[in-house]
Amino acid sequence: MGLVRELASIVLHLDQHLDGFIQAYGVWAYSLLFLIIFCETGLVVTPVLPGDSLLFVAGALAARGSLDVWWLAVLLAVAAVGGDAANYWIGRSVGARLFRNGQVRYLKKEYLDRTHQFYERYGAKTIVLARFVPIIRTFAPFVAGLGTMTYRRFAVYNVSGGVGWIALFVFGGYFFGNVPAVRRHFSLVVLAVIVISLLPMAVALVRERSGRMR
Question: How far apart are CA 134 and CA 48, in angstroms?
Answer without folding.
Answer: 8
